[in-house]
Write a structure and sequence with these properties.
- With 506 residues, this protein is of the alpha/beta class.
- A hairpin with a 3-residue loop joins β14 and β15.
- Helix content is 32%, strand content 20%.
- It is built from twelve helices and 17 strands.
- The chain has two domains: 145 residues, NAD(P)-binding Rossmann-like Domain (Rossmann fold, 3-Layer(aba) Sandwich); 280 residues, Dihydrodipicolinate Reductase, domain 2.
- It binds 6-O-phosphono-beta-D-glucopyranose.
- The site of 6-O-phosphono-beta-D-glucopyranose has 3 residues, from loops.
Length: 506
């Protein structure tokens, strides 16, 4: 694998959770694989006062707690690459000190001027920090490339996303801006492209002639945990649908790219977003449904309802569950319904894209043995990553009884193949200057544009219900009503309750 050029990664919000849980363990894993730049440093900036050593200790704990494996022999030299400084990133003057320290580290570590700035901060700083960096000439590429990674959410709605984009573009070129969507960094999400475009057998069927409908689910067992304050302002639509789920739709529905490069791939996904049939505000009630989890008892344990979570308004109408039905108006998908579903406090954690194929044109076998959509291709994004094909098979014995069976591939069957985390892939790509797996501005705007009527209808029309669902169930009882074909329901990949992360029967 390529080794990026010598460089430094500057993390704003380095004393926060994301840095400790995801970024540093990912960077440490890259270091172990020997694919970080030969000369490399990480400069953490945050509002907590820490010395370099405090920061190193904290990150060491993060690596211990959130990595698959911990090997002191490898971690120790990695920690020496870490530096820290306190910053109040809203104060312009603070960037003077920061620049001085940055120069010192660059010199000490011999890393040169190539720099990635990572904004792991509250969204209110996404415009402020890049602007202040530019005021201190830190966007200038004379002494090496400069890139800025912006975490999600990119904007709060279409208007704020346009404003944020505009503000960034005043000082940074589009090719310097990396909008992160960690779903795109998942190995199995990228495998959607490989499954589709490296096999001759799926793609001929991957269209309106053979596909009955497409269903994409991202279910979580956990609730909002300690993020009630953030979630109240976001809700599932902004938190999961605008980014992760629509990106999955993009990869599942796109045309083959002309080449496997950043622009060719992103050109195709954006065409999908631009072809989404607009949902009219007054039709939102027929195309989308929202829900909120209620208190319940799971395996003897009392689970709080959303409104009882810390930081949540006791009368909150924020959705923790969303489903949307929509169409993609193009030649490939004309008339094929797409369904997306996401929610917190569902029975299990599972993300999957399911292609439901049309039934045979003529029933040779007893009707009772046929289901409307026996053939499903299930792309399991997580956990227990893999691919499953469902098809009908003869039950041994007399007659022609048909039974639906599974052909199942699990990534875990590949010996010695560790699946890299999404952040490993994305951070490595950002150092290499490969933005293929980052969201481009036009895609982000198209996604907001598509969801704008839903956001507006939910805000403006109090008659649109927020259905309650007991924690540990598959959402509102009437969720199946949105499925167009009355003989069909959502797929319920886990019939029995499982604990978080424990995968249950498909
Ligand atoms: C984040 C959301 O982007 O994705 C969280 O803000 C959500 O609310 C998380 O829990 C889900 O990610 P994953 O990788 O666990 O499916």
């Amino acid at each position: 694998m390529n080794r990026p050029e010598n460089s430094i990664l500057v993390i704003f919000g380095a004393s926060g959770d994301l840095t400790k849980r995801k970024l540093i363990p990912a960077l440490c894993a890259l270091n172990m694989q020997n694919i970080l730049p030969e000369k490399f440093a990480i400069f953490g900036l945050g509002r907590t006062k820490l010395s370099h050593d405090d920061f190193r200790d904290l990150m060491n704990e993060g690596i211990k707690n959130y990595s698959d494996s911990y090997d002191e022999k490898n971690v120790k030299p990695f920690l020496k690459k870490l530096f820290y400084q306190y910053i109040d990133a809203t104060h312009q003057d603070a960037y003077k000190n920061m620049t001085t320290k940055l120069q010192e580290i660059r010199k000490e570590m011999g890393v040169g001027g190539n720099t990635v700035f990572y904004l792991s901060t509250p969204p209110s700083l996404y415009a402020v920090i890049p602007k202040n960096l530019a005021k201190h000439n830190l966007n200038n590429e004379n002494d090496g490339w400069k890139r800025v990674i912006v975490e999600k959410p990119f904007g709060y709605d279409l208007k704020s996303a346009i404003e944020l984009n505009h503000s960034l573009h005043e000082d940074w070129n589009e090719d310097q801006i990396y909008r992160i969507d960690h779903y795109l960094g998942k190995e199995t999400v990228q495998n959607v492209l490989v499954t589709r475009f490296s096999n001759g057998i799926f793609e001929p069927l991957w269209n309106r002639n053979y596909v009955h409908h497409v269903e994409i689910t991202a279910a979580e067992f956990i609730g909002v945990e300690k993020r009630g304050g953030y979630y109240e302002k976001s809700g599932a639509l902004r938190d999961m649908v605008q980014n992760h789920l629509l990106q999955l739709v993009g990869l599942t529905a796109m045309e083959p790219p002309s080449a496997m490069d950043s622009n060719s791939i992103r050109n195709e996904t954006v065409k999908v977003f631009q072809s989404l049939r607009p949902i009219k505000e007054d039709d939102v009630i027929n195309s989308a449904m929202r829900g909120q989890y209620l208190a319940s008892t799971i395996k003897g344990e009392k689970i709080k309802g959303y409104r009882e979570e810390a930081g949540v308004d006791p009368n909150s109408k924020t959705e923790t569950f969303v489903i949307i039905k929509f169409y993609i108006d193009n030649w490939r998908w004309g008339g094929v319904p797409f369904y997306i579903r996401t929610g917190k406090r569902l029975p299990t954690r599972v993300t999957e894209a399911v292609i439901h194929f049309k039934p045979t044109p003529h029933y040779l076998f007893a009707k009772k043995d046929i289901c409307e959509s026996c053939n499903q291709l299930v792309i399991r994004i997580q956990p227990d990553e893999g691919i499953l094909l469902k098809f009908g098979m003869k039950v041994p014995g007399s007659g022609f009884e048909v039974q639906n069976v599974n052909m199942d591939f699990h990534y875990s069957d590949l010996c010695n193949q560790k699946i890299p985390t999404a952040y490993e892939r994305l951070l490595h790509d950002s150092l290499l200057g490969d933005s293929t797996l980052y969201a481009r501005e036009d895609a982000v705007m198209a996604a907001w544009k598509f969801l704008e009527p839903v956001l507006n209808a939910w805000k403006n029309n109090p008659k649109i219900p927020v259905y309650g669902y007991p924690a540990g169930t598959w959402g509102p009882e009437n969720a199946d009503n949105l499925i167009e074909d009355p003989t069909m329901t959502w797929r319920y990949p886990c019939k029995n309750l499982s604990n978080d992360g424990v995968f249950c029967e498909l």
